[in-house]
Specification:
mainly beta
Length: 119
């Protein structure tokens, strides 16, 4: 299965009812390690800062973010809604640090399968 990073989205995404309520994940960064990335309200990609707590041997997230000045596509995905029925995939395109837009692939509608002859 492997490690992943989390993505928080502070902007609306067309076709996604409530992007803030979805637990988005990505494997697009080198060596994913449960880091938290955010697409902020200004359309900038940021990474949350964290520190290692030697005493408790745990990584603690800080309320500080580093702007990545990201250029390229970021693919992330998550299950939307209570039924968590299908995987929603989103491609965020950034140009020199600024979000240009989202491309969304929604889950396919369920199809019914029939076997044998129908009468």
């Amino acid at each position: 299965m492997g490690m992943f990073d989390n993505v928080v989205v502070d902007l609306p995404i067309e076709g996604v009812a409530d992007p803030k309520s979805v637990e988005w994940q990505t494997k697009d960064f080198d060596m994913p390690a449960l880091d938290v990335y955010r697409i902020n309200a200004a359309g900038r990609l940021e990474r949350q800062r964290s520190v290692w707590d030697e005493k408790e041997e745990v990584c603690r997230a800080l309320d500080e973010w580093d702007d990545l000045d990201y250029h390229g596509d970021l693919l992330f995905y998550g299950f939307e809604g209570e039924d968590r029925d299908g995987l929603t995939r989103v491609r965020a395109r950034f140009a020199h640090g600024v979000l240009e837009g989202f491309t969304v692939t929604l889950p396919a509608a369920p199809t019914s399968l029939t076997t044998g002859s129908e009468t």
